[in-house]
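retry 2 of 3: previous attempt timed out while embedding 2-acetamido-2-deoxy-beta-D-glucopyranose. Reduced batch size to 1 and resubmitted. Inputs unchanged:
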Amino acid sequence: MQICLHGMEPWGPPRHLEVALFCLCWNLADGRSACMEWIYSSAIGQVPAQAEQGHLEVARWTPRLHSMQADLRCFLSSSQPTASRSVNGWNQDQATSRWRVPGAIAIAVVFIVKKKMDNTKLSEGSVDDKYADALVVAMQFFDVQKYIDLEVLFVVVAGKLVDDVISWRGDSGLKDGSVADLDLSKGMYDAGDNLKFGFPMAFTATVLSWAILEYGNHMEHVNHLEYAKGSLRWITDFLINAHPSENVLYIQVGDPEEDHKCWQKPENMTEKRPLKRVNKSLPGSDVAAETAAAMASASLVFKKADSTYSSTLLKHAKQLFTFANKHKGSYTESLPELAEYYNSTGYGDELIWGASWLYHATGDKSYLEYLTGEDAETYADVEGPTWFSWDNKLAGAQVLLSRLSMLGGASGISGLKDYKKGAEDLMCALLPDSPSATSSRTERGLIWISEWDSLQHPVASAFLAALYSDYMRTSNSDKLSCGDESFDHSDLRNFAKSQAKYVLGDNPMEISYLVGYGKKYPKFVHHRGASIPADAKTGCSDGFKWLASKKPNPNVAVGAMVGGPFKNESFIDSRNNSMQTEPTTYNSALLVGLLSSLVTNSDVVKSLRAK
Ligand SMILES: *[C@@H]1O[C@H](CO)[C@@H](O)[C@H](O)[C@H]1NC(C)=O
Ligand SMILES: *[C@@H]1O[C@H](CO)[C@@H](O)[C@H](O)[C@H]1NC(C)=O
Ligand SMILES: *[C@@H]1O[C@H](CO)[C@@H](O)[C@H](O)[C@H]1NC(C)=O
Ligand SMILES: *[C@@H]1O[C@H](CO)[C@@H](O)[C@H](O)[C@H]1NC(C)=O
Ligand SMILES: *[C@@H]1O[C@H](CO)[C@@H](O)[C@H](O)[C@H]1NC(C)=O
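retry 2 succeeded.
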């Protein structure tokens, strides 16, 4: 094994070259490297005086991901790190480059000395560049959907990784919420339009939290853990403000009817931005419990770094769950005019999901009792596997609660066994060679449930399979029995990979459904901001000419995962084909979860509270 330094130039023109990122990594036998720690320097000129001179050799320079991003690997000649190892020459090319890398290397070397390598971290598998690259791309969609004040993000990201990529974005919706004296300017638009829908937005946050809690270490391999947390916080900041009192939750910003009469950039919206809310007389157990799940899971993510923020989130989560449970009703029944967009087909699954996250976040037995008591019998006792989605979280709760049975010493709690059984049934349905394999697949093997936004189900299913696989692996669980056949964790991981590979281009259309990744990806994404030139003067209705335009989008919605293929695996890249070309933030969260899991192998933590 060799130690290496892995430098990544941030996106962008020379003005950003003062900032560089370096990874302290191990070279693995197969030639790839696994990142142990990311460090960055924003003041590379200031080389710590202690840095010694020694032998360092530039081994490779490979452009990767993006023409503006390069990847530099250097190998120390020794196989073991030592404090006295010193650094001296760079080859000529490097010495004359504007990178000013030697300073950073020196910093990194000092870092090696200071850090003393922790060998326990090295048991992790090798990093798979395909998934690592795709993950970096996928995460950017959250910035595309934010629109406002991108500078704020860089407080946490540093290195200005994205501003040049999303240069076509500007502030928008700054006054959102003002009609109720609230600041709802943050949050994310749900898809290709300019609306903020609380129900899918909260789901996005819950999934992103889950991904961070399980695979934050994998995100760190590509220096995107803080970035993911920043995206999450952008939503949870919104959710906090949307919950001004115990029994009131604002769940929508903007009027879909008015919005859909226009084809305009959010930056140039002039319509009124009315709000919708649920309360005691117009209850919304589904949206309130999902929001509770989002805040409870996020409270775990921020627990260590910002305990005040974490406690605030947890307080809101508990109140929202109580509100959801005490005043039962579906938000789209209370507000039927909302059913046309994100119609909730029931709130039982969200109550289970919310209680599951609250139990993970608090360890409070009352939530466990809820999950194994009478309420659960009503809400969780569903025949057969269900599909995990923004509307139905039961399968997610089954996998999350299996975590307790498999890793958390809760195997004795009989009520939880039913959730594990539910998760096993789902896993058996997903595995293509299982006797109970679902037939809802394309010929090439992609799980295929709905024509609209078809990739949501395979990606969500693959994320759950990857999680379940890791729970099996970490707990050394026996085989998974499906009828007479038995499978192990690697079968589930292979299934998860098969779905991810399909999304990334291994499909009959030979197209990557992740915009910005691969050689060929959709160019006519159904997305107002991406389809309208940054300097266009059009407003509401005259903007439809950009929808009708025969030219590809002028702006690339980097990281967008489009709706996806038909059952016959065909895909029509047309801007007006929203069924297939519209991206959504919740799908991005699911994809980020899936890709994070696949970046490398590692055991998951035994308890999410241990983070
Ligand atoms: C439209 O938005 C852009 C930012 O994307 C801004 O520069 C421009 O001034 C806006 N135009 C109008 C008419 O609001
Ligand atoms: C709930 O909200 C609706 C609509 O905003 C409002 O008319 C109603 O009075 C509210 N109910 C309570 C109990 O505050
Ligand atoms: C919304 O879901 C409910 C419950 O499944 C269903 O009865 C209703 O018809 C749906 N409404 C729309 C507009 O799809
Ligand atoms: C987009 O498709 C809809 C429905 O298929 C159609 O009514 C509309 O005219 C189309 N718009 C454009 C700009 O092609
Ligand atoms: C594939 O399916 C879609 C939707 O059902 C259909 O419109 C299209 O014609 C089919 N394409 C082929 C090549 O069969």
